[in-house]
Amino acid sequence: MNPKSNRARLLAAAAAGVVLAGQMAFAGETGETREAWRLFVADHTRPVVRVLDFDDGKELARYDIKGYATLTASASGQTVFATQSDSDIVHVIGTGIALSDHGEHRDLDVSDPALLPVTFAGKRPFHVVPHDDHLILFYDRGGKAEIIDEAALLDGTAKVREIDTTAPHHGVAVTMGRFVLVSVPDTSAETKPDTLPPRIGLRVIDGSGKQVGDIAKCTDLHGEATSARLVAVGCKEGVLVARPGKEGPELKLLPYPETLPKGYVGTLLGGKALQFFLGNYGEDKVVLIDPDSDEPYRLVELPTRRVDFILDPADVRNAYILTEDGDLHVLDVVKGEIVRKAKVTEPYSKDGHWRDPRPRLAVADGQIAITDPRHALVRIVDSGTLKESRTIPVDGQPFSIVAVGGSGASH
């Protein structure tokens, strides 16, 4: 498939997505339609997570935890995982927002947020991967990953399947049906004290924990995402894509073409209504990846280094990229072009420690929420005009942020 026909296919899929959204909104009128959005914000240094009402900025709850946290929302949006890597613990917050699909419409139930009674402990929990009705928690120094059932969490219990990750390493695990994709460490590598071995590949294991097929080479594996039925991970050699097969996931490397400058993908996002992936490519470029195209990579250059980026779950053509000069860029994923930009914060340099306080992005109700830790604010920017509509003051240094919500019928 050539790039032009590929773009035509993406345009048709985008149009279909808009039509479906309209049909769902119309069908949802079987009951009183309501909308609810909440922001979950973790402080950069303090062990605290705040829940904010998106409409008025009111603080609905504040949870004191053990350490500073990175936040990850589940696929359903009913839970948020607060991963405290340096404190070896993960807390789970019930968002109080539940969307249920009824075919012709969705129902929305809203209740109070709550810090759930179940916690997860282990040596350096890091990557949390949401997928369908569960989340996969990877412990870098624990030599294990856990597949966690979300429904049990919401009932106040833990239902966990443990996965052996061979040896401690900074890796990831992703489910595909009854199979699990797990990163592979180089156990033969000589490492300095208190350092972890490098990643060299990806393996597939079945429900009994048995490896299926050979290990697929993937040097310095980092970054994963799911789009439709595909899973992609970043490698030094290219992007490794897993597809469902008759006897389990089939792994195929998409090597970087010679036309690309030197670099590699280390962070990936997966399209929801459209099948594609967006990855970083070095610090000042991104790539759009279509695994079904004869030319799967489209490079997009940025004026300065990237601070954060995110896909819009509702406006499926849009991705938002914040660069260190304080500009927010809108990337049209179908055209493969930056279509507009505006300054939304003062500059935040990428020099310094990787975890220095810098803005992070979330999307809620057609608007972009941007943490500004230097000014103790969450800035709300209209995704159409890129103009700031308001700010939400947040005590401390607001850092990691996720948005949860939507609209539905309330019976």
TrEMBL record:
InterPro entries reported in the protein's UniProt record: AztD-like (IPR047697), Quino_amine_DH_bsu (IPR011044)
Signal peptide annotation: 1-27
Keywords assigned by UniProt, alphabetized: Signal
The name this protein goes by in its record: Uncharacterized protein
